[in-house]
Structure formats: structure tokens, C-alpha cells
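Schema walk-through. Below, the input block comes first and the output block second. Nothing else is stored per chain. Lengths vary across the set, and this one has 468 residues.
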Amino acid sequence: MDTELLFGTAIGDLPRAVTSRCEAAIQTYRRARKEESREKVVGKLSDGILDLGSGIADWSLRTGGDCTCGECFSVNDATIEVALGEMFSALGQMAGPEQVTRVQTELMQVRSSNLLKLARMSLFGPANTYWGNDYATGLRGAMRRGGCMVTTNPVLIGIAWDTQSVIWIPMRDKIRKQHKKYTPTELAYAITIQVVLENARMLRPIFEATCGEFGHVSLQLSPKNAFDADVMIREALWVWEELKAELGEHPNCVFKVPGTQAGIAVAIALTARGIGVNVTVNFALPQQIAFASAIERGRAPVSYRTQMDGRLDDPVGDELCEAGVLDWEEVKTWATTAIRQREYRLLSACTEHGGMGCKKSRPLPASGRGPWNITRSVHSESEVPLVLTVFPPRQEEFDLEAREIDPDGMWTALPRGYLKKLQKSRLFRMAYEPDGMTVHDFDTYLPVQRTLDEFNGKYDLFLGKVAS
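--- output ---
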């Protein structure tokens, strides 16, 4: 990504900067003797076009207005379109019309993205809802469609390893050669750190352009220690120092901590040091209240409270089916919608509106099962932005056809009678009621147990691949 062009160019300098890069690309292409070198030049310019013409530029260049002061770092759409035209012309001189057509087609697909529409509704319009990539790789493509963070877990790392072993295996071998005495767990963290650093550097310009409001990488501590606060704190602080050595004093990273009783102590310890957290394995309003209260006492300016939508909706659906609810498959999709509405009113809304006014932690819907998890998470409330993370298959599904996005979709009323049906589920009642469970119940809550069991199994597989 051409960070200097996208995030460090003043309005009056953009045309000259683009012209300079195009001329340099053409000269380099003509001097190159190997076809491989020429392909790299073409690829770099093609990527530059997609970056400049997409959501990445929204964070610094595109405002939709006319800035004439000559000092700010913003330009209007017309100026960007002229710049893109010049870059396409240079691309055509080097690679011909077929490559131009390919890049134009890809840019059109990016610009038609519903996720990009959502991001722009929040940057320039009525909404206050952002999104991030829920995967270990593919961040740049997500950023082009407005993504402003990335998060992952052992399940997704395992999938990424299987589908992109050509990337992961050489990384593992290099780290293992450098650190021959590392245990498999230490190697796993070392590999995770490298993936985090790559993504953090990509998101860093957004982090800096927004003064730390957005552009975070969320990395998960070992799920094997979900009930041991001391070990989680020790490992987090070690990883944090490694990140600081590479990224500077303020890494654009937050730690995923589990929504267990021990996780509360970890959240308190890390946020007291100004380190942000992302509460994962999190399903219920009692968990949200406990962690929001802990985070609010800390010094970290930005943390997140994940709501694992599908991982609660699915077992709620099982209970509804057993209870004889005929339309349980549809009813269950509203479980986390009902919880999210109550959560925002109780935790994020200002005290004047009856809420607790928690500003340091943001709601983060995740583990969605369909487009409804996205559309029913969008809101325009000014108090606290919501950031949802989306699996790549769900991103494709959401962008498959044109969609209208209601900036207040989160407040869509549950269909008549659905709340009463949902309350036939014990798991839903425990999650929906502020006093539905105690802190001591967090560790034995069924969705917590199931999710940690899966994470631990996937983490064991990851350790096996690291050590093989």
C-alpha cells in the first residue's frame, strides 16, 4: 500500500504525486529485462489503483467536498477520479487494455460493495457502525471495502494455515530456525506475532489518521489458559513488549480475553496499563456488564466487547426446537438482536438516557450466520460506535446483491410474539436478563464451554502444525 500517497498527500500535491509515480512506473517497466520484474511493476500500479479508488482512501483523502486551503490532507472525488484516469493510462501503456479491463472490473466490484456502502454511511453519513475482517489473512481486500480492523482466533488461524500453507510453513520454519529453544507454545505466539505485525502495519495509517480510534488488530491469548488469569496476564505483557519493539510505544493492537471469571482480572490488569482488550467467548448481558465495568476503570482508550451471535443463536435454537416452537429456525435469529438492543441501552447510552455511559468499550458483533446479523447491527447512535467483524464467506454473501441498509437497523422491532418465544430458552433468559447469571456462572455457561472446547481443539491442532 502506498501509504505516503494515500495518507500523506495534501490536496494540492495529489496530481503531482500521481504523475510522478506513473512516470517512475513506466520508466522502471521499460528498463526491466525480466518478465517477472515487469509483472511486479504492473502489479504494484494495479494495486495502487484499487487502493486509491476504494475505501482505503476514505480515511484520509476522500471527503466529497472542496478543500481549497492547500494545507489539509483531503481531496474531493473529482480529483481522485482524474488521478485514477492517469494511473489507468500508465497501466495501459505498460500492460495493455486487457489488464486495464481486469483492474476496472475489480474496482467496480469493490465500489459496489454493500460493506463499503456501510463504511461510507458511517464516515460521511448517518450511521455510526464500522466493520472489520474476521480472518487471519485477506486484510487489504477488506480495507478496500471499508474494513478498519482485523480479528482472529485459533479456528480461523487453522483454516488459514490449511488454505494458505505456502505462506505459513516458510514463516514457521524461519522462526523455528531463529529460536531453536522455543517450545511449541512459544513458537505459536511468535508466529501469531508475525501475522499481527503484518496486519498492524497495514492498518497503522488508519490508526494514526484517526488518533487511535480505529485501525486495531485483535489477537487472542491462548485459550488453554482461559481460567488462569496470572498466565494470561504474563503472556499478554510479553507479547505486548514484542509488539512495542516493532511498532513503537503504542501498538495498534488489543488482546482478546475470554469472557470467563478469570478474564475479568485480565481485563482489569491490561486496561490499567493502557492496553486495550477485546472480550471474546462473550454471549450474555451479565458478561457484558461485568467486563464493561472493569474496562471503564482502566486507562485504555479503546476496547471491544464481542457478542458471538451465531454461537449463541444456534444453541438457543436447539432449545426452542425442543420446547416445541414451530418456527424456531427464524425465531433464533433474533436472539442476539434482542440482547444487543438491551445491551446498548444499558451500557453505551448516556446517563441522561438511562444508560451507564460506558465510553471505553465498544459493542462488537461477531460470528454472524447471515446478512441479518449485519443489517440488525447498524445504528446511528452518537455515544459509542459499533464495530462488527465478518467472516470472508459472510462478506461475499452480504455483497452478493444490492442491499438497502437502514442506519437504525439495530432498533428493528422484534416480530410480534418472538420475545415470548425466545424466553422459552433457558440459555436466552440467562443471556438477556442483566441478572441472568452470576460471575461464577460464566465459566459453566454452555456456549462458553462449547466455544472454549472448540478453540482448545483447534489450538492443539495449530500447535501440532507448529511443531511438525
